[in-house]
Amino acid sequence: MKITVIGLGYIGLPTAILFAKYGHKVTGIDLSSWMTTQLNAGFIHIEEPGLEQELKEALLLGNFYASTQPVSADAYIIAVPTPNKADKYQSCDTSYVEAAMTSILPYVKTGDTIIVESTIAPRTMVDMVQPMVEKNGFTVGKDIFLAHCPERVLPGNIMHELIHNPRIIGGITDACTKKAATVYGTFVQGEMIEARAGEAELSKLMENTYRDVNIALANELAKISNRLGIDALRVIEMANKHPRVNLHQPGPGVGGHCLAVDPYFVIATAPEQSLLMQTARTINNSMPAYVVQQVQALMAEREGNQITIFGMTYKGNIDDMRESPATEIRDKLNEAGFEVRVFDPHVTELLLTGEEACEGSSLILVLSDHDEFLNIPTNYTDKMRDKMIFDTKNIVQSVGAKVKYVNYGNLHKIKISQKEAVVQV
């Protein structure tokens, strides 16, 4: 089968390479000529374990080629970004999907399958994509088979999860669902869940909204516990021993291309009915400012003015900084007058080593849960002006003997001791 994949980002590229691995002739399309040149030379532009080796093998087999121009195929897969619009409810910007559809329609022929993997607002397939196909003289479900098949993978384990995770196949018609399932059936070993397009759209959005709401509950608990002088992390640990409770962990905010974005696609379509989702977004969006507020309190008794941020990505062990709360926190700290240095071993453009970034600092602020931060070596902290770590991700497992360690569990104790020390003076 000939397959054209539009968009070679964090989802499109692994998908294209996996189809190639399983014997299909795949053309990957992206507007970046630099990117396509790199891919054809065997080099990937994102951090994903095992992906570059899989690319090299696909190139050796002659099953993958990257281009800036679409080509004719039997199946077309659209995996382009869908950012938020700058409107009241930050609705779904489908302009990239529309542009991708426009680019492939001159090549589409009777019997072809078009699959949109991009995360989209409810009814996008019926209200926008289907009319574009029908305007070209095709009957969906008879001439052209149209489906929404959202990805549901974890960065850092994408190749495995593309194969083994359940896959929702949301066709415009039953025939569209069957046809799209045949495309994915060449490699998907997980359950293929047959659905209609609208069900698939909303299901994908609710998966991420569920997590966003639960994280908001944990973040609100962290604020409440800090106010009451109670260990929030201990509360969560005990509550989760109940067989029907699974509280999430608090953090510095919510980032990434899913959790920080997708709830708005639902909110914008039904603002009067989505009050809980809106509240959750407000809480999670408030966390960067809350972290900065706590940092200011911790730094009030420090002599120095330098802070070292550990981690700029929105989650651990990847290089993805999209929507990362660390970016907002860094900017707010700079605006507050602090000297900020950054260390992130997964972001290549950040050149400082951990030791260099920490020298002269009065606080390490952990914002990403990279494995490299599990144990903070003494050569990082030995040259600090004040040896203190504020771990917003509760990731650090060991620090030096004279390092003061702070997280959402003991944050209230540190600040109380500072106030008492001032009174004693």
Task: Explain the layout of strands and helices.
Elements: E1 2-6, H1 12-21, E2 25-29, H2 33-40, H3 51-61, E3 64-67, E4 75-78, H4 95-104, E5 113-116, H5 124-135, E6 145-148, H6 158-164, E7 167-171, H7 174-184, E8 192-196, H8 197-228, H9 232-239, H10 262-269, H11 275-299, E9 306-310, H12 325-335, E10 339-343, H13 354-358, E11 363-366, H14 378-381, E12 388-391, E13 404-407, H15 411-424
Parallel strand pairs: 1-2, 1-4, 2-3, 4-5, 5-6, 7-8, 9-10, 9-11, 11-12, 12-13
Antiparallel strand pairs: 6-7
Task: Write a structural description.
- Among the domains are: 189 residues, Rossmann fold (3-Layer(aba) Sandwich), CATH 3.40.50.720; 79 residues, Orthogonal Bundle (N-(1-d-carboxylethyl)-l-norvaline Dehydrogenase, domain 2).
- The protein has 15 helices and 13 strands.
- Helix 4 links the parallel strand 4 and strand 5.
- Helix 8 runs parallel beside helix 11.
- The chain is an alpha/beta fold and 425 residues long.
- The strands form 2 sheets. The chain has an 8-stranded mixed β-sheet, with helices on both faces. A 5-stranded parallel β-sheet has the order 10-9-11-12-13.
- The protein is 41% helix and 14% strand.
- The C terminus is likely disordered.
- The termini are far apart.
The name of the CATH superfamily of the domain at 2-190 reads NAD(P)-binding Rossmann-like Domain
CATH architecture label name of the domain at 2-190:
3-Layer(aba) Sandwich
The global form is: globular
Largest sheet: 8 strands, mixed
The count of β-strands is: 13
**SS-based class:** alpha/beta
Per DSSP, the total helix count is 15
**Beta-strand fraction estimate:** 5-15%
Strand order of the largest sheet: 3-2-1-4-5-6-7-8
Radius of gyration: 24 Å
Low-confidence stretches: 417-425
Order of helices and strands: EHEHHEEHEHEHEHEHHHHEHEHEHEEH
Helix content: 40-55%
Q: What's the end-to-end separation, in Å? A: 77 Å
